[in-house]
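Write out the 3D structure for:
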Amino acid sequence: MVLGPASWFLSCAHVPAPAPAPAPAATAAPAGPAHRDLSTDRATFFGASRCDKANVLLCEDFESGTLDPAIWQASGTPPTIETTQKARGARALHVVRDGNGLSRIRETKTFPVPHNRYYGRAFVRFEALPKEPMTYSHWTIIAGTGTGVRGEIRIGGQLQRGANRWGVGTDNRTPEGTGDWTNSDKDPAGQAMPVPEQQWMCIEWMHDGEHNETRLWWDGIEHPTLATTTDKHGGRKDVPYVLPTFDAVWLGWHEYQPSTLKFDMWLDEIAIDKDRIGCVL
């Protein structure tokens, strides 16, 4: 179902089903709220929607079949809610783009957040990522934005040397910004895995504007090479990496290099909270 101008949004509710496959390895995940299961066991990730009992600031499972315009705003190629794939429940958001450009949903409902720090969690599945004949591609699937500092705080990846790898960065090109850069995943050391296709993944992130820190977890496992601080980042070394006062986050797809390829991905059970969420909740 294509989301028309008046109905490309949805509320937080329940979410869809399955998926196995090996999880990437890296460092052990730190503890979260005592009541939350931060297991890395993929067998616990999938099944019925869990939004109705999540007790988080926002949980979107796409089970209603429409996007709530009071929560979500879409831009670019309209994403659709479908039943062909799902991580939980019966439905997921299908994001397809022919050629470079964007297709995404954005929410401001959960902002501002206490201490300017929020955690996100989304189930992600790629059907078609950048590949030959492209030799390089830079893409984003999640970005936080706000006031006080220009640019997006990005989660995405890059195609380099024939493989897509996760990456984090920003595009703040202002004189006081660190520039346009992306750090690529190097965890675990010497064995970093390419981003897989045809497999559901649980991606978690933290954007801490009070301390200017970001972190990322893949299937519950933290990848420290994708963490940033004020002075540990991939941009200009003479400029501190300062995060904005967050007022929005978007999820979907944006690819920047000229291309005629079809890019195809799914998103499911998106959650936002003031504490780490994990892949089980």
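The chain has two domains: 1-22+43-71+78-94, 100-259.
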